[in-house]
Amino acid sequence: MGGKFPILGRMAAAALAFGLAACASAPSTVFDLTAAHPPAARPFGAQVRFDPPVATLDLDSDRILVRNGMELALLPGGRWPQQLSSLFRARLIETFQNAGLARSIDGGAASADYALGLDIRAFELDATTSQAHVEVVAKIVALTSGRIVDVAIFSARKPVPSTGAASVVASLDEASAQVMADIVRFVSRRL
Q1: Is 158 helix (H, G, I), strand (E, B) or coil?
Q2: Rounded distance between C-alpha atoms, residue 137 and residue 126, angstroms
Q3: What angle do CA 137, 61, 154 make, to 5 degrees?
Q4: Got the DSSP string for 15-35?
Q5: Which of helix, strand or coil describes residue 164?
Q6: Which secondary-structure segment (H or E) carries 166?
């Protein structure tokens, strides 16, 4: 942007920084995600370790992301109680417990047979389609050999009736719950 108009470039950057600062300093409500309640799954004898999810820096914060094409912004008026990756991991573990698989979760005391790796690719309001979009890649790795047992991409989109924080979060929560239930089914089928 600098080129022939360095002052305009600096002014645009300052305006963007001011806008984001105003958005970040506005009072916001803390929203949580809920764990899904999938049908009871067939118990499996293996122990599964849940590795910390991977996410880009823009996603992995306590702020709620809005995507408009290639532009990213923060949703005013709402935030998560902790970083998104930690929150999603905690609710996914609860989802496994809700499916009757609590005994298969390695809580650190047992020696895990498998690791479940997660890559959070999208967890945002897609402003161009007015949809909540959640996309997560799940990878099962056999810890004894390091062999990848299976990889799958789970994606869900839910309509967002308004751009208010409560409405956006409700739709994100619904999409997230669908993805979590799908991940439980995926792991149950493979182990």
Answers
A1: strand
A2: 19
A3: 15
A4: HHHHHHHHHHHS--EE-----
A5: coil
A6: helix 165-190
**Residue 30 in this model has a pLDDT that exceeds 50:** yes
pLDDT of 6 over the 90 cut? no
Q: Give the distance, in angstroms, between the CA of residue 113 and the centroid of all CA atoms in the same chain.
A: 25
Q: Which fold would CATH assign to domain 31-190? A: Rossmann fold (3.40.50)
CA distance 50 to 164: 33
Structure tokens at 120: 């959070």
Distance CA 107, CA 14 (A): 47
The pLDDT tens digits of the residues spanning 33-82 come to 999 999 998 888 889 999 999 999 999 999 999 999 999 999 999 999 99
What letter represents residue 113's amino acid? D
Determine contact, residues 114/47, Cβ cutoff 8 Å: yes
The pLDDT value recorded for residue 15 is 37
Q: pLDDT tens digits for 131-181? A: 999 999 999 999 999 999 999 999 999 999 998 999 999 999 999 999 999
**pLDDT confidence bin for 90, thresholds 50/70/90:** very high
Q: What is the distance between the alpha carbons of residues 49 and 142, in angstroms, rounded to a whole number?
A: 10
The helix/strand/coil state of 69 is coil
Q: Are 181 and 38 in contact (CB under 8 A)?
A: yes
Contact 153, 8 (CB under 8 A): no
Residues near 189 by Cβ (< 8 Å), separated by ≥ 6?
none
